[in-house]
Amino acid sequence: MNLSQLYYFKKLAEVQHYTKAAKELYITQPSLSEAISSLESELGVRLFLKNGRNIRLTQYGQEFYQYVSASLNELDKGVNVIQEQVKDIGGTIEIGCIATLLVGFMARAMYSYRESVSEKTVFHVFETPTAVAIEGLKSEIYDIAFCSKVEDPDLRFTPILEQEILALVNQQHPLAKCETITLRDLAGYNLITYRPDIQIGRDVGTLLAENGLKAEQPFMEEGSIGASVQMNPIVGIVANTVWLSQYPNLVRIHFSDVPRGFRKVCMAYNSKHFINRPTERFMDFVLSHLDTLVSEEYRLENG
Q1: What domain range is 9 assigned to?
Q2: Are residues 49 and 170 in the same domain?
Q3: Cα 294 to the chain's mean position, in Å?
Q4: Tens-place pLDDT, residues 26-36
């Protein structure tokens, strides 16, 4: 029996619905079911019974709840006393972040948080591609990450901004006079984009393949793609990020057939790991201040 099981039991007893309780606990429903089943096995009694779509406490569950609730309330009081004594310390947050968010968004988020919430919070931010950020979340190296979404049952992703996918050419290129094109208009041109071993490279590679196109994929980020486009008669397929600002003479062409939300960047955390209070406060702050933290051109279309 551990403390997490007791908190899970208390929440489930009060909500009497597995899905709702799991959501409020920031864990998966299978994880909650497993914890309750383990607790019942250890106690040797059933604590809950099905009641239609909901559940209800058994007689043993009702009696156990009284003791658990009283004990956890006292424990929470003690925690609150200590937190009040050290609330100005701020805490430390370990963050994995893709490169394109470091300049602009991440800098604004940290500065604004320190200004309005806790000036003593310490941020440890590591520049990393999505795959490394995901591994960091799973191994508890990072508390949160800002990266692309991947399919993983333990991780939770919340979109925070969009980066439009563009065609990038130099001023001598035949497409330079175009403001908007379709992917099919790229047929016959030499294309370059991101490496296939990073998430955006896989996504863009799939998008091109679905439209009968293929690109060379040697690059990690927009700066390298921009440098190559500047010197050669090729088309770069890139996300519109701050790194393109170093190439003001390059022409950015919009796609009429690529959804604006094709490339979303998310804030992610591991639902199976404990989220400390500083991290939780920072996550809440980010989500409630997206209008000021995210530049207008990157804001979510329905945000």
Answers
A1: 3-86
A2: no
A3: 15
A4: 999 999 999 99
